[in-house]
Amino acid sequence: MTQFKFSKRVPADGTDAVGAILKAAADPQIISFAGGLPAPELFPVKEMKAAVDKVFATHGQEAMQYGAAKGVTALRELIQHHVKEKENVDAELDNVLVTTGSEQVLDLVGKAFVNPGDTVLVEQPTYLCALDVFKTYGANFAGVEMDEQGMKMDALEEALKSRPNTKLVYTVPNFQNPTGRTMALDRRQKLAELAAKYDVYVLEDNPYGEIRFAGQHVPAVKSFDKTGHVFYMSTFSKTLAPGFRLGWLVADADVVNKLTVLKQSADLHTDNLVQYAVAQFFADNDVDAHVREISDLYGKRKQLMADGIKQYFPAGVKYTDPEGGMFLWVEVPGVDDTVELFKECLKHNVAFVPGDPFFAGKPQPGAFRLNYSNAPEDKIKAGMKQLGEALQDAVAG
Ligand code: PMP
Questions:
Q1: Are 124 and 145 in contact (CB under 8 A)?
Q2: Best residue for ligand 1 mutational test, from 127, 133, 151, 231 (most atoms within 8 Å of Cβ)
Q3: How far is ligand 1, taken at its centre, from the CA of residue 205, in Å?
Q4: ipTM for the assembly
Q5: Cβ-contact 107, 132 below 8 angstroms
Q6: How far from the centroid of its chain's Cα atoms is residue 54's Cα?
Q7: Predicted confidence band at 99 (pLDDT cuts at 50, 70, 90)?
Q8: Tens of pLDDT, residues 107-163
Q9: What does the alpha-carbon distance between residue 81 and residue 100 come to, in Å, rounded to a whole number?
Q10: Which atom of ligand 1 is nearest to the CA of 237?
Q11: 334 sits in which H/E element
Q12: Residue 365, SS3?
């Protein structure tokens, strides 16, 4: 057997704990609230086919040819106007980079800014793939405490003072993955100020902000940025189609230029056909109405899930009540081993993602993430009953 000499970037244990969880949850017997998939029944397949047909008729050769690393101009212009309309973010074309999923922004920012040993401050808990990405570049993490209003700014400032080698603060301010929490307006302003004061960068990751089914929109941290310290990223994955792998970065032109060079080394450019098709789709359809339909459906599903928690879960269980997005977060007191709890729930044919991998530091026992966007209503009702029974057993045992 060959002992391959992998680089230091490859995780030494080589295991994919979350992959194993999702695999176990994929058994057709099991009602899974584990994954993070949008509702496929709302994918605008017919309209997108019409957009693709039009692209082949009007830009067939450009769509099939190599293209610009920064992206198709029509799509970059669309993104420029979109961030102004939705988030009050002022951007020139030079500030926009199209990426292969917004996941690529995480990778490019990690590659461009994180030297081994640099500190990356993250919400506690945070998006686990972001931890994985920054880990490959040798980041040291420190978790910053959250409450229902998002990352606590006093805790963040303490962390910034005590860790002068901090490079990056990573936040998912809207309907965070995994908790569903949203950062309050005053904290967003403060976050932009702290980034400038301590000369660190904020990576604002906003895949879910448009999927709001209750409450008032809160403008992006980037809209308060006066110094270029905030990098804003988002995606078409939750509003149109994750399979298209289309995301974007809005940042200072210098940052965009450097990341473009790195992107060129990674994949030359993002798929042209998909870029043209999405731009065409926006031109021909009422995308706001489409996003409203998604939000309404997820709002109903979230409510069913919350009703299920109230009806079936043991007393004392805490849970978040998101105003949008795809996830809520549950904390079951008295549980020490959430992975064991997961295994017990599998026996009751229901699944979630245990909280542990979302923590940069010590995990919070008994916490887990539930997804409500993907399962139809009857499955949510049945699954919450099963989950409630499993938790009652676990707490009693
Ligand atoms: N950031 C967060 C917080 C996410 O939840 C996801 C998707 N799970 C991504 C980034 C990546 O999304 P995509 O690459 O599909 O744009």
A1: yes
A2: 127
A3: 8
A4: 0.99
A5: no
A6: 31
A7: very high
A8: 999 999 999 999 999 999 999 999 999 999 999 999 999 999 999 999 999 999 999
A9: 20
A10: 15
A11: none
A12: coil
